[in-house]
Amino acid sequence: MTDRTPGRSHRAAPVLTHPDDVPLLTALTALADPVRIQLVRTLADHPDWSLSCSNFDVPVGRAAKSHHFAVLRAAGLVEQRDDGPKRLNRLRREEFDARFPGLLDLALRDDEVS
Amino acid sequence: MTDRTPGRSHRAAPVLTHPDDVPLLTALTALADPVRIQLVRTLADHPDWSLSCSNFDVPVGRAAKSHHFAVLRAAGLVEQRDDGPKRLNRLRREEFDARFPGLLDLALRDDEVS
DNA sequence: CGCACTGTATGATGCTCATCGAACACTCTG
DNA sequence: CAGAGTGTTCGATGAGCATCATACAGTGCG
């Protein structure tokens, strides 16, 4: 049997990891997508752990949304925690800002995404 | 006859344009590429207008290099000027920094691109 | 003029990635 | 246990893009 987080594990997926040493390209690529920018902005407008994935209103299906959250998590932008059947989210503001000062502010500040 | 810059014009290509109101996604996408990051960094290490396109040592052919410069120009990161058969380049530091404060610093500061 | 040099445009190719539908896994409640 | 709700994984599909080879268009020099 493999590692499991207290809540859901979904197949043999390892515990949710949230890296601190993200390469620059990974961070830029993660933010260079309109859907992910929207996710990050929505997240910034709500308290930590107050939103589960299904609460985000983006124009893609569940599968794509799940994929985007995985990308954001791999980029160190989002932390996820399982709570019952839901997966709650939190923007890693300070952590990401420590790694890439000003980048998150830029993504949140600007109104015209494209 | 169409507009021409004093130097080369290449077919009916309009005068080289360098936008100021770049969308956020355009800027992030332009920087989310290892070759373009390298071009920007090389450019930052040399005086304005001191490098022509062929002076940049990136592991791609001439066509791809030309394409990358076009992307950087469209993102407002690079200004180009024709000088005889060469096309000289300049990093639009202040202009880009005014539009996206800190972003260029991040691209230049970090050593580990990927 | 003819040639070398520089850079762009075009067409083709291959790869990455965003997306979807469907199946699956887990949790909780009735 | 059965069913609803939530989210992930898988396979397939399509679009976009990075790249190349080639052809083309300027510039300047002999």
UniProtKB/TrEMBL annotation, chains A, B:
What superkingdom heads the lineage? Answer: Bacteria
Identify the SMART domains for this entry: HTH_ARSR
Which positions fall inside the HTH arsR-type domain?
A: 16-111
GO molecular function term, any single one: DNA-binding transcription factor activity
Quote the protein name from its UniProt record.
Helix-turn-helix transcriptional regulator
Q: What is the native source organism of this protein?
A: Streptomyces adustus
